[in-house]
Write a structure and sequence with these properties.
The protein is mostly helical. It contains ten helices and no strands. It has helices spanning 3-8, 10-22, 28-55, 58-77, 86-107, 115-146, 148-156, 161-186, 194-201, 206-235. The radius of gyration is 21 Å and the shape is globular.
Length: 255
């Protein structure tokens, strides 16, 4: 793609900004900030990846994956920032998912151990897992409101924290995985995913592109399940105080 063609893509941003102004949505500032940030971040990571691909040093691969995990944990943790320690738990869940998934991919020889494969696939794994974490935390916040009476009753009857919150956690884990499962059901019929489309546009054989996309879809399903399970297991106590009471509800404007 030429620089001129890249500049012309700003037309799509202009359409979004025009609709916002026309409908008085007040999103013009957010659209401008999002446009600038996405362009700067993508250009920056492009040059970083170019350097890493040239050097192929394992240390750089580890550093960039750690940065992905930390940024993802910070972003997903904003969904429940009032829960102390939630970001560290998210980082642990993301690291576990990334480690197990990448060990399987490399151990079975599904992908080659080069930065060109490890970093993009890791980005897909961590990015999708971050969304799962955000969905799980959002649903848990609703559960803390709607099922609060049920949990308090169980605690009053002598149930442990895990027993009291078990049903809410199960519903939250299920809700966080539904978008991934629904995506698997409609892929290829409703949408052609980004990786597959990119490979086809770059000139790859469509059948080969489909094979890689199948790999990614299966990896996403596995990573969603692992992330939701690990995060729920290591974070459920954070929804309680030290004396085994539920955390107080925040005012609506602070949520």
């Amino acid at each position: 793609m030429s620089n001129m063609a890249l500049i012309c893509t700003l037309c799509f941003v202009a359409v979004a900004a025009f609709i916002s102004m026309r409908q008085k949505l007040g999103l013009e500032k957010e659209i401008l900030i999002g446009t600038l940030r996405s362009a700067i971040q993508l250009l920056f990571i492009g040059y970083v990846l170019h350097f890493i691909f040239e050097t192929s040093h394992p240390a750089f691969i580890v550093i960039i994956i750690l940065c992905m995990i930390l940024v993802a944990a910070w972003n997903a943790g904003a969904k429940a920032r009032h829960v102390r320690g939630i970001r560290s738990r998210i980082a642990i869940a993301l690291a576990c998912t990334e480690g197990v998934t990448m060990a399987i991919l490399l151990g079975l020889g599904i992908i080659t151990p080069t930065p060109q494969y490890i970093i993009p696939v890791s980005g897909i794994i961590i990015g999708s897992s971050m969304i799962v974490c955000g969905l799980l935390l959002n649903h848990m916040k609703r559960e803390m409101e709607t099922a609060r009476g049920e949990m308090e009753m169980l605690l009053a009857l002598g149930a442990s924290e895990k027993q009291a919150i078990h049903s809410s956690l199960r519903r939250s884990v299920r809700a966080s995985m539904i978008p991934t499962i629904d995506g698997m059901k409609t892929v290829g019929l409703v949408q052609l995913p980004g990786m597959m489309t990119g490979m086809i546009v770059a000139g790859a054989d469509p059948v080969e592109a489909v094979r890689y996309q199948i790999l990614i879809m299966f990896v996403l399903a596995s990573s969603a399940a692992m992330t939701a399970m690990v995060l729920s297991l290591i974070s459920y106590k954070l929804w309680f105080t030290r004396d085994a009471r539920l955390l107080p509800l925040l005012p609506a404007e602070n949520q």
